Amino acid sequence: MVSGKMLFKNFIRYVQIFSICGLCISMSALPALAGPITIYQCNLPPFNYQSETGQPTGIAVDVLVEIMNTAGCSVDLSKIKNVPLARSLRCIAASNSSILFSVAKTPKREKSFKWVGPIYNLKLGLISKKSRHIIINDKQDISKYKIGVIRESAPYSILTKEYGVPKKKLTLLTTDVQQFKMLNRGRVDLITQSNTGAPSMIRDAGLNLSDFEMSYVMMDLDLYFCLSKNFSDEFVGKLQQALKRIKTKGPDGTSTFDKIIARHLGYNQFTVHHL
């Protein structure tokens, strides 16, 4: 279950690209790789975040461990690096052997990387303070508001490319902490976030979950593991097959994946209004 006052602590630290250490992986059952694999995570609870002790945790972390084990690998979670999304994507693009999670596979990104997934499907939408009584009935109404959005994120691409929101209406931010602080203080009218991630972020920011609502659902979004393009198709295929296996239900009607979801989604789902 998502909890902890330290959730955002290391996410806002600036990490030098060339100081990132590799993730230790046993290569005995894998195709030959160019070198050690580096694993990055961006802050996206309950899928990936840091626990109170600084340990990487979340749905995607557990899934990564399972599919690596199923593919015949072992991983060292202490080597996973928590880095903002835009910086992580640049690192992955410049690397021969890096993995980032959890990431939306947008048309702009799709050809630049290799992908394993989807890990999970979530609703991506616009969150407001209930006291503002913001009701959005049509996507054309979105441009009336000032929106806080993470720089170079999937929501930024969706707002500008698919919804035609002028860039002058967007306030570009680096972290989820900034998003919720700006929204709570009235500096922006709306922010972009998922129905699964918002509840834990609101609580860990010291805010009241009942003060916020999702005013508009922009899209259902699939999350993936994003891999450097130089990974072999054989390696990517092993991970994809491993993911398929852990999602396969057993005789009891549940799967390993179902059990992972149950461990982490132990809170009430965020209320979605005005759909």
TrEMBL record:
Keyword annotations: Signal
Solute-binding protein family 3/N-terminal domain mapped to chain residues: 36-268
Matches recorded under Pfam families: SBP_bac_3 (PF00497)
Stored SUPFAM superfamilies: Periplasmic binding protein-like II (SSF53850)
Record bears the keyword Signal: yes
Signal peptide: 1-34
Keyword Hydrolase (UniProt): no
Protein name: Putative membrane associated periplasmic amino
Species of origin: Maridesulfovibrio hydrothermalis AM13 = DSM 14728
